[in-house]
Fold:
Amino acid sequence: MIQKLGKACQEWGFFQVINHGVPESLMKQMIDACQRFFELPEEEKKEFHTKNLLDPIKCGTSFNVAIDKVRLWRDYLKVIAHPKFNSLYKPAGYSEVSLEFSKRTRAVATEILNGISESLGLEADYITKAMNWDRGCQILAANYYPACPQPDLAIGIPPHTDHGLVTLLIQNDMCGLEVKHNDQWVLVNAAPGAFIVNVGDQMQILTNDKYKSIWHRATVNNTATRISIAVPHGPALDTPAVPIPELLEKEGEKAKYIGMTYEKFMELQASPAAYMMPCLDHLRVKDN
Structure:
């Protein structure tokens, strides 16, 4: 199993996890709670509108924003759930469901990180210790993609990589996640009750490019609303990821990246600099 995990991280950067112990009923409750939030009148959501990257709760819309002549077609809600749990007081029931979901999801992410450490030939808790996981950042990021009258002219989320260590994702019955593999876009068909998991930028840095953070995007359709909940898990905000010395020694490699705190890395990803050049390339050691 550990070997399969390592192979998936190396060859795809994406995999699915079943039999993870999180009840499917809880996953559905979480999607329902987020749907109820998105269905609130705009006036009621306005208090959570903010542009600040690390505000505990923020929501907004990407409707009618022109990027490369393609329109973004999405509403979003982002809530920081760890190291301090934050929540919404509306809609009713959201707070209780999101607390249970964030705890359960974090436990699954911890198991995955332990497995990834072992797949690299390290102690199971190596990555969690190195990244100050007890203070690690966990975000509940819900995305709402209504049916789009012209799906060929719009996209839910443009191609991107995730900034954290690993991201866990669930969705309603509508597909829409596409992963870039061998220069082809591949639609992900999720198994019932599965978490879709992908490797993030911090993991690519730690493994010195062995496990790659893969480009992915969200497409839209003209038949039904799609809701996804992505849960990125990262290091503590003040912790920089650097290539793991033991791996460099074992592989006889030089470090390909310089360090940057996770908070600074997230700020970089949200800045115009990330449009000019992928974030990881900003940290890449230049060949002399």
About this structure: The longest strand covers residues 75-82. Confidence is low (pLDDT under 50) at residues 64-68.
